[in-house]
Structure formats: C-alpha cells, structure tokens
Specification:
By secondary structure, this protein is mainly α. It has 23 helices and no strands. It is a multi-pass membrane protein. InterPro entries: Cation/H_exchanger_TM, CPA1_transporter, Na+/solute_symporter_sf.
Length: 539
C-alpha cells in the first residue's frame, strides 16, 4: 500500500500553488506519467475540489484550456472583471470543472426524481431542504477553503445558518437524518482504523492509555466543579455534562489527519496512531459512562445491566470487528478481478451493520469500535501482504476517501444544524463558557504532562495534546439525549432545565472548539510536525 499511496500523492498534489509545476512536469515526462498510472492502477476518481486530476488527464485538459483561452478572450475583452475570473477558471480548469460536473449530476437526478415522484420533490419539500443543506454545506466549505481555512468551518457555519433561519427542521425524515449521520461515522471510523499501525500501537500503548484516561478525568472533574458552583448543577448532572463535553470529535480529527497524510506530515513515530487511538478510546469511555449516569439520573432500567453494557459492548465491538476484518481479508481472493470493489463494499457494510446493529441491540459503545477494529485488522493484513508481495495493491483507502468527500458535507452540516440560538440563555452561556474554558485548559495541560516517556519532542507532544481539543460529533449526538428523555418521561421543571442546560453547553462546546480546533490543528501542523521524505517506506 505504501508505495502505491505515495504515487497517488504525487499525482494528486493538494495545493493550488503547484499547478504550474504539475503541468510543466507532465509535458516533459508524459511516458513516465503513463507508466506510473499503469503501475499503480489507481482509478482517477477523485472529487475533492482542491486536488488536481490524474497527470494523464491533466495533459488533455491543458491542451483544451489553451484552446479555450483564445475563444474566451475574444468574447470578454470589453469588461474588466470577467477576464480575471475566466483566466482563473482556465488556469484551474481541472479543479473547477469538478463542481460543475457535480451540479450537472444533481440537475439530472432532480429531473429523474421529479418525473418519478411528481409533487414530492418541489423546492419547499423536506427532502429538497435536506439536499440543499448538503449542497450549501459543500459550497460554503469550498468558499472557505479559498481563504485558507479548513473547509469544515464553512460546512458547520452553513448548518448553523440553515437551522437559525428556520429551514433546518426535517419533520418525518428523522430516520434518514440519523442514518446519514451514522454512515458518516462509519466512514470516518473505517478510515481511522486503516490509519492505525500495529507496531506503533504496541510500542506506545502506555502513552495512549495515559493520554486517554488522565486528560479525560481531569476535564470531567473541572467541568463538574465549575457547573456545580456556578450554575448550581447537582454533582451527578455536572459529571454527566463533563462526559458529554470531554469526547473528542473523530470527524474533525481524522479529517485533518487525512490532510496531514497527503502532505506527509507527522508520519514518523506513530503520531497518527496515537491521535486516532486516543480519540476513539476517549469517545468509547465518554459515551459508555454517559449512558450509565443518564440511566441513574432518570432511573431507567436496572443498574447492573447498564454497568455491564460498556464492557460487554466493547468486547462485542472488538470481536465483531476482528471477525469482519478476517472475512474481508479472505474474501474475495487477491487474484479476483473485482477484489477492490468487493472489499470496499463489504467493509462499508460491515461498518454500517456494526453501528446500526449495536444501536438496535442497545449496546451503542460497540458500534464505532466494530468499524475501527474491522478496518484495522483488514489494513494490517493488507500491509503484511504488501511486504511479502510488492505487486499487491488495495484501493480500499482510496475508495473510502472518495466516499468521505460526499459524506463530509453531510456530516459537518448536520453538526452545524444542531446549533439552535433560540435555546441559548445568557446566564448559562456565560458560566458555561467559563466551565468549558477551564475544562479544556486543564485537559491540554494534563494531557501534555501525562506524556512522560516516548521519543517525541516538545512540539510533537503539544500537537498530540492539541488533538484533544476539537469537539463536535459526539456533542451533537449526546447533547439532545437528556432533553429528549426529559420530554418523553414528562420530568419536573428542574430536571427539564438541567437537561436543557446540558444541550446549551454542548452546543457551545461545538461552536467554540470545532472551528478553532480545526484551524489550530491545520495551521500548526507544518510548524510542529516533521515532513517525511518521499523515499520513506513507513506509512
């Protein structure tokens, strides 16, 4: 995998600034580009706006764009602003043409849907509102990335806007919304599992455990103390809130790690493995304990069942994941013609079954773990095969990347849609922010000092600690849970207002940490992490 992946990275250079370089490069070495393509046999399917098409494609496009150049100039000589935009489009045509293709696909799909279901896909219908949320999220992400900010900020921002102008209510489609959220989680967890490295996991196990337990415990404690004294929360509810807030967002963190992998930053010393492992362990612990405390707060079901739920769920997830991973390794055979497509489909469906099935069986902590362990087992097996047989390639990672390009706007715009300014109450916002700031500050400090040992330098430790900062996915999922329970159980006013405060503060956590965390992790990576050379085999 390592070698193919690298060629793929060469072919798809992520920055606009290198476009000249790519074109220049392929005029001189068309044969080499073709050889490379045949050798790595990676399909040129890539819909990210900020990536250039395969080198071979690039050649044809350059010629076309040079022809277009003439025609366009004759048309637009009269006005001042147009040529600049046209020139920009021509220069970046391989990149700019992709969103246009997506728009054409959308219009065609809409036409077909209108013909099949007349009267159901008019502009104001709920299903169209859901689709526009994702399209707008993608567009805003694209615009934001021009300013050099992470595109997820635009997607979250659009979701917030959508909810607060009153079109973000999808009544009757809650199941669909939940399923989309779950698919985004499946996708990101499978990518995370492929990013784990067995040797690094073994070597850094102690550090991973310390980084999971110490910062989580201190953050929960500090938040509980703050809200107890500032907002008169009972201790139980304080800890409950702390657990909602402490969970790290895998969507934000893994998305940034994928970008770092493209830019070959921090691939040494198992930094990616530590960050992914800490993120997933942290979330499993937070979600499990949240479920237990919620059960105590609302006294639903018996306590032993709830206490067993976590450990049993963890075992179930790992076992299901390991079995799925082994099945994916064996079926189909490496020699089959469509091995990659079948592997990809199987691994996605295993992940989906893990997340949705565990929710149905009421062992929610098993879901994400099942995804991570399935792709971890399969990925480790593929890496070993790669060492034995250098011609062996698997493109599952590439396909999952492509799927994430579609699910990314879905995931982040749905997170933004959870932010409703109507529920924000001045007093809670003020003291909630103080509690959040105190919690996050303590988390970063205790995270940094819980390293002791390991072969990382100060900046690498700081970066790994910082990866515990962005919060979004879990808060959007767990924030409203207590309030829904309070509504369905018709609880007293005190419980209702506590549950509402939990929602408000989890919304605050999303607004204050997801954009800032994503920004810091993106901007500090080149400064704090070492860049790997292209001849380095470790991935």
């Amino acid at each position: 995998m390592a070698r193919t992946k690298r060629k793929y990275l060469v072919a798809h250079h992520p920055h606009h600034t290198h476009h000249h370089h790519s074109h220049h490069h392929n005029h001189h070495h068309p044969h080499r580009a073709q050889d490379q393509n045949q050798q790595s046999s990676i399909p040129p399917v890539d819909l990210e706006m900020s990536k250039i098409q395969d080198i071979e494609e690039g050649q044809k496009i350059v010629m076309q764009s040079q022809n277009n150049n003439h025609v366009i100039h004759n048309e637009t000589n009269g006005s001042n602003s147009a040529p600049k935009i046209w020139l920009y489009l021509i220069k970046h045509w391989p990149v700019a043409s992709q969103p246009i293709a997506l728009v054409i696909i959308f219009l065609l799909s809409w036409g077909i849907a209108s013909s099949l279901f007349p009267g159901q896909v008019y502009i104001h219908s709920t299903i169209m509102r859901i689709i526009f949320l994702f399209i707008g999220g993608q567009a805003c992400g694209y615009l934001v990335s021009f300013v050099g900010l992470p595109d997820m900020l635009g997607m979250i921002g659009f979701g917030v806007l959508y909810k607060n102008i009153g079109v973000g209510y999808f009544d009757g489609y809650e199941k669909l919304e939940a399923a989309l959220r779950e698919m985004a989680l499946v996708n990101i967890m499978l990518l995370a599992g492929l990013g784990l490295d067995l040797d690094a996991l073994k070597a850094l196990f102690g550090i991973i455990m310390r980084l999971t337990l110490i910062p989580t415990a201190t953050e929960v404690a500090v938040i509980a103390v703050c809200v107890h004294y500032l907002l008169n929360f009972p201790w139980l509810w304080g800890i409950l809130l702390g657990l909602v807030v402490t969970a790290i967002s895998p969507n934000v963190v893994v998305t940034i790690l994928l970008k770092l992998k493209e830019e070959r930053l921090g691939l040494n010393k198992g930094i990616h493995t530590v960050i992914i492992a800490v993120t997933s362990c942290n979330d499993v612990i937070a979600i499990f304990l949240f479920g237990v405390l919620l059960g105590i707060a609302f006294s639903t079901g018996n306590l032993t069942h709830q206490l067993l739920q976590g450990p049993v769920g963890i075992v179930m997830g790992c076992v299901f994941g390991a079995v799925s991973g082994l099945v994916i390794l064996k079926f189909p055979s490496d020699k089959s013609k469509y091995a990659n497509g079948l592997r990809f489909t199987t691994i996605v469906l295993c992940g989906a079954l893990s997340v949705m099935g565990s929710k149905y069986l009421e062992y929610p902590s098993a879901g994400a773990l099942g995804c991570i362990s399935a792709s971890f087992v399969a990925g480790t097996g593929w890496r070993r095969r790669q060492l034995k047989d250098p011609t062996f390639t698997t493109e599952v990672g590439t396909y999952l990347d492509l799927l994430w390009k579609f699910l990314k706007p879905v995931s982040f715009s749905l997170i933004g849609k959870e932010v409703d300014f109507k529920v924000l109450d001045g007093n809670i916002v003020l003291y909630g922010m103080i509690a959040l700031l105190a919690g996050v500050a303590i988390r970063l400090v205790s995270g940094y000092f819980s390293f002791c040992g390991g072969n990382m330098n100060t900046k690498e430790k700081a970066y790994i600690t910082l990866s515990g900062f962005p919060k979004a996915t879990v808060q959007a999922a767990l924030g409203p849970v207590a309030l829904d329970l309070a509504r369905s159980q018709k609880s007293d006013d005190a419980t209702y207002s506590l549950a509402n405060s939990v929602l408000v503060i989890s919304v605050l956590a999303i607004i204050s940490t997801a954009p800032l965390g994503a920004l810091l992790m993106t901007k500090l990576a080149p400064k704090w992490l070492k860049k790997e050379n292209a001849n380095d085999e470790e991935l």
